[in-house]
Structures are given as structure tokens and as C-alpha cells.
Amino acid sequence: MEKKRVYIVKKSAFTASHYHDGALNELEHMHEFVYEIKLHGMTNNEGYLLDFRDVEEVLKQVINKKLMYKTLNKELSFHPTTENVAVWMYEQLKGVFKDLLYSVKLYETPESWVIYEGEK
Predict the structure, then answer these.
(1) Which end of the chain, N or C, is less surrounded by CB atoms within 10 Å?
(2) How far apart are CA 64 and CA 6, in angstroms?
């Protein structure tokens, strides 16, 4: 089969807390942050882009291991709004997936999320 451009999505989650000063003014509270990463590129000779198991392992090591059960304000060097965390996640994963990384979608709740696609 000829090579085709595809997009694959892998979902994962971590539980963490954060708090906000300033206009948001929220006490420390917990979320189960669910996120999806979208990768894109040409299929290989066997017809796939990347093995989902390999992608999952990267997410566990690069994101979940660092943030699971942490207070994001203490773990990260910036104000951890969902927007800022999505950008940070993108930057961490860009170092691994390079040009294959298309976007990071970070859910704060099932009804509220941020999508970051880098500075294209």
C-alpha cells in the first residue's frame, strides 16, 4: 500500500492540583487532567505512523510521571493555568516527537479544554 499522510491521537490523564491568585482567585483544587496529543506524518512501509504503545510510554515518562499527584504551582516554574500547562506539555513532547507533534489538547473538565498547536 502506498504511504499516506495520517493523524493519530493518543489520550492519557494525570491527577494534580493547582491554585490561582489574581483575577481567577481560586483556592487549591484538584482536577483529573485528561489530555490528547495529535501526531501527524506519512505512514511507513508497514502502513502505520507510530506504535501507540511507544507513544503511550512517552506520555507516561515525560508528562504523567512528572505531574501525577503534584501541586502544579510547586512543580512547574510558571503560573499553571490550563493554557500554560498545555503549552508546557507541547514543548516537552516536541523534544521527543519533533515535527510529528501536531497539537496538545488538555481538558480541565469534560466541558472545558485548551488546544495548543505550537507557534506555526
Answers:
(1) C
(2) 26
Residue 107 grid coordinates: 481538558
Q: Which residues of 87-105 are buried (b: 16+ CB within 10 A; e: fewer)?
A: bbbbeebeeebeebbbbbb
Interstrand relation of 26-42 and 5-20 (parallel, antiparallel or unpaired) = antiparallel
Q: What is the pTM of this model?
A: 0.94
Report CA-CA distances (Å) from 69 to 6, 63, 96, 111. Answer: 34, 12, 23, 22
3-state SS assignment for residue 22: coil
The DSSP symbol for 45 reads T
For residues 28 and 86, the answer to whether their CB atoms sit within 8 Å is no
pLDDT digits (tens, 9 = 90+) for 36-58: 999 999 999 999 999 999 999 99
